[in-house]
């Protein structure tokens, strides 16, 4: 099976072997057998945050297809979610059952099991705000264990489970996750200006859960960040680049108009988060931009997304990403980091 059939970017070559366990027990058996073989392996959820080379993957792909959401109620509620459950279905369940804390994470594609790997976040909420623990199968030992959120080193689009330029992530498979939510028909306090404006609310207000979910889905659709067969801009991996985090001293050298967020106002020298979209646009990359003859393009709705306009290859996506990276590096001295997992592809 080709990764073009398994990923939202619709690119990528053949996987040598694909396993599709549908229960937790089947997933544990499949993973242990793959690991014991000593061959390459790759866990795959919704395929929404993945770019695989045109040559494919000479190893075993373990598709995580487990399903299930179990609710334990009290003054707060714990949702135990199977790793293969589509993330947006988890949010929809929480909103329908009056559980507050993840409503602003509506519309994020992919599976629940990938959520802690990325520490997904949007519109002022992050998984780290509500994650209690995960059930984890460790590739090094084959053991099944419970890891508290505090063990996962959750940061901006990162965790101890994710590979990064600085370190190798902890290898294994997330089997399920526990989310600690508030029993309330009202949202968590609104913490993102654009969302507050869309709701006609002020920052810090709490509004009905359904209203937040509807507003977020509308915002995501307007940016091509909501999977929609009728929207060619949704044939993407979502945001392709993370927002850079730089020192406060470095940020002072940027144009005054550059958006920035002080991450630790109490620190003498705080890390500063920048807008990757602003940097890309000011480096001369416009919405809809593509290289001559390429099927890959920047989304016509949002400069953070790279899309397959039809017939694109993984190499074409990577070539466009490299071009954007070099433009931003040349203009601002900032190295953009790719958000999707790259397999057989380098930027």
UniProtKB/TrEMBL annotation:
Catalytic activity as recorded in UniProt: UDP-N-acetyl-alpha-D-muramate + NADP(+) = UDP-N-acetyl-3-O-(1-carboxyvinyl)-alpha-D-glucosamine + NADPH + H(+)
Top-level taxon of the source organism: Bacteria
GO cellular component: cytosol
Keyword Oxidoreductase part of the UniProt annotation: yes
This protein's UniProt keywords: Cell cycle, Cell division, Cell shape, Cell wall biogenesis/degradation, Cytoplasm, FAD, Flavoprotein, NADP, Oxidoreductase, Peptidoglycan synthesis
Keyword NADP tagged: yes
Entry's family note: Belongs to the MurB family.
Protein name in UniProt: UDP-N-acetylenolpyruvoylglucosamine reductase
Native organism: Terrimesophilobacter mesophilus
């Amino acid at each position: 099976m080709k990764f073009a059939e398994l990923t939202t970017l619709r690119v990528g070559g053949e996987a040598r072997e694909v396993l599709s366990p549908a229960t937790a027990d089947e997933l544990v058996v499949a993973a242990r057998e793959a690991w014991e073989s000593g061959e390459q392996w790759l866990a795959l959820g919704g395929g929404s945050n993945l770019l695989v080379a045109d040559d494919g993957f000479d190893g075993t792909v373990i598709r995580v297809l487990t399903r299930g959401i179990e609710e334990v109620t009290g003054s707060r509620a714990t949702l135990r979610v199977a790793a293969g459950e589509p993330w947006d279905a988890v949010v929809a369940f929480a909103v329908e059952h009056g559980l507050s804390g993840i409503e602003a994470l509506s519309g994020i594609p992919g599976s629940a099991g990938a959520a802690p790997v990325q520490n997904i976040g949007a519109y002022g909420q992050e998984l780290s705000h509500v994650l209690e623990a995960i059930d984890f199968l460790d590739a090094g030992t084959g053991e099944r264990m419970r890891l508290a959120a505090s063990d996962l080193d959750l940061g901006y689009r990162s965790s101890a489970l994710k590979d990064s330029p600085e370190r190798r992530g902890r290898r294994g498979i997330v089997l399920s996750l526990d989310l600690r939510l508030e029993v309330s028909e009202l949202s968590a306090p609104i913490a993102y200006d654009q969302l507050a404006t869309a709701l006609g609310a002020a920052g810090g207000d709490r509004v009905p859960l359904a209203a937040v979910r509807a507003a977020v889905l509308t915002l995501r659709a307007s940016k091509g960040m909501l999977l929609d067969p009728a929207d060619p801009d949704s044939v993407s991996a979502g945001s392709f680049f993370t927002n850079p985090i730089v020192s406060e001293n470095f940020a002072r050298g940027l144009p005054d108009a550059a958006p920035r967020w002080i991450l630790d106002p109490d620190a003498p020298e705080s890390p500063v988060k920048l807008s990757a979209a602003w940097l890309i646009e000011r480096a001369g990359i416009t919405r809809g931009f593509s290289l001559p003859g390429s099927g890959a393009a920047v989304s016509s709705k949002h400069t953070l997304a790279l899309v397959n306009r039809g017939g694109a290859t993984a190499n074409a996506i990577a070539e466009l990403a490299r071009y954007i990276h070099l433009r931003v590096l040349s203009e601002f001295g900032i190295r953009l980091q790719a958000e999707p997992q790259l397999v057989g592809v380098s930027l």
